[in-house]
Amino acid sequence: MNGAGALIRTLVAAGVDTCFTNPGTSEMHFVAALDGVPGMRGVLALFEGVATGAADGYGRMAGRPAATLLHLGPGLGNGLANLHNARRAWTPVVNIVGDHATYHTKYDAQLQSDIETVARNVSAFVRTSASTAALAGDAVDAVRAALGPPGQVATLILPADVSWTEGGTPVELSGPLTATTGTAPDADVVDAAAKALRSGEPAALLIGGRACRTPLLDQLSALAEATGAKLLCETFPARLERGQGRPEVERIAYLAEFAAMQLDGVRHLVLVDAKSPVTFFAYPNKASDLVPDGCTVHPLATAASDVAGAVAALTDALGATGTRPRHTAAERPGLPEGALDAAKVCQAIGALLPEGAIVSDEGNTAGVFAAGATAGAPPHDWLTLTGGAIGQGLPVAVGAAVACPDRRVLALEADGSSLYTIQSLWTMAREGLDVTTVLLNNGSYAVLNMELQRVGADAGGPKARAMLDLHHPDLDFVSVARGLGVQAERATTAEAFNDALGRALATPGPSVIEAMVAPL
Known about the structure:
The chain is α/β, with parallel strands linked by helices. 37% of the residues lie in helices and 18% in strands.
């Protein structure tokens, strides 16, 4: 057995059975070895950013890592933006990055680069396998590092000769690897948080990560009910379970002015698997820290913590074990009518979203109404743009659909963002994934028009306006989607959109609905 065969067998034994690939010459022995290991599923992407984003979506929904297979430093570089998003989501990902044969590096061939330096930008674990004998053990270390907690990106660099050399031996494991428990809760920190929540002063629980999913979400909602604290979550949670029968959670607003209103008067902010809130960007003459003056921050649990243990300890300290959470009532908007706009698109999604759906939300400005319109829809999961690097929505939808083949995925996608990773549609078609893409076409990088004003830049000139405009020529997403093998149609009225969405959600396989909406 060569190194590649031992590596793949070890990954499968460790619980990594899906690999999103965009390989090159140095990875050919890994590709050839796939046929000898039926337990590993290979999913081809046409661009590395699709592979890395899909691994992120897979990890968010499966709770365990997928692998990526990338070609040398440039291939890793092409996938970096969505690895950045995965890092911010604390998603477990194992990158396998091919490298030149060890004896070839001295020649400084055209594709030679410092892969480790590139990888360190997004990876908590980076290792170059030095020998075929060590490779399988290196893979186990990478998977353990990816699982955490916290979940993180682990990059294993695979020289071509380490891959092709005979003598590889898989690591024997008793079963798939799992995440460790995490750091035990500190009694003093728990006590301080309990005293803050009992103080009678305005308080809030700010949650993220694992705290946004049941059963922790229910437990934290009960704590909020017992103490009168607000229940807030991060602006861009990796995965929020929401909808009918699930706790009501208020997301911190993207715009600092609105976030300041949400936090106004709060004197104690308890963090549960969440970071203290800051603005996304710096703005002239505005504060970057969103914590109000006079507010004490209590970091109950970090991404490296035993979050469940910390929540249980706080519940015991407050004597709140008998309190019930506040759940969202079933409520759907009616189907919209008339001329189509962004609000009506979101209204229709709220009216038709099926139970168990997974929403990959990169709707940006045009999707601002979606959260409100779907609040009382049947139970579903909401995946957001954790790191702010656009081009995430479609690849994350791919990964979520691979991880959860029995659930419908809805990709809520902005026109500008979609073009970073539009190749995702081809992978959806190739794999027959149940992904319905709602593509909001307003012909603009609308979020940047807003940011121009917010940072105080003068945008009055035609050159500046042209840099944020997506006309001349107009984009035809129906033709693009069909060219990539996906059924697509365009909607210009609410009635047409309602019909298209209902049909798409009921039809197996991928589809695109191009919703023509005006800029907000």
